[in-house]
Design a protein that fits this description.
The protein is mainly beta. The protein contains no helices and six strands. Strand 1 and strand 2 form a beta hairpin. A six-stranded antiparallel β-barrel has the order 1-2-3-4-5-6. The chain is globular. About 0% of the residues lie in helices and about 65% in strands.
């Protein structure tokens, strides 16, 4: 399930982007905030093949993040679309 997200991130002096916190709407339309416990950057630039086999080229950065949702640790995929300046998540 894909959802748009608000993201707080840190930008390092060497140009890396580190996601720290996300905010997404729940099923009731309420905004929920989650701290990112750990992350792994899966791609920056280059060719990117999404799980649904769509090739998106260099325009999307992809992260795998661990967050705690209602007491359970979950893995989410966080994407940043460079040209549209938009973050979104894919819940696994």
């Amino acid at each position: 399930m894909r959802k748009n997200a608000d993201v707080i991130c840190q930008h390092t002096k060497d140009g890396r982007t580190i996601p720290l916190k996300i905010r997404i709407e729940d099923e009731d339309g309420e905004l929920q905030s989650y701290s990112i416990r750990s992350y792994r950057q899966l791609s920056v630039g280059g060719t990117l093949l999404l799980p649904n086999e769509v090739n998106v080229g260099k325009a999307i950065w992809r992260y795998e993040c661990k967050v705690c949702i209602w007491g359970r640790e979950r893995i989410i995929e966080l994407f940043y679309h460079l040209h549209e300046n938009v973050w979104y998540v894919e819940l696994k």
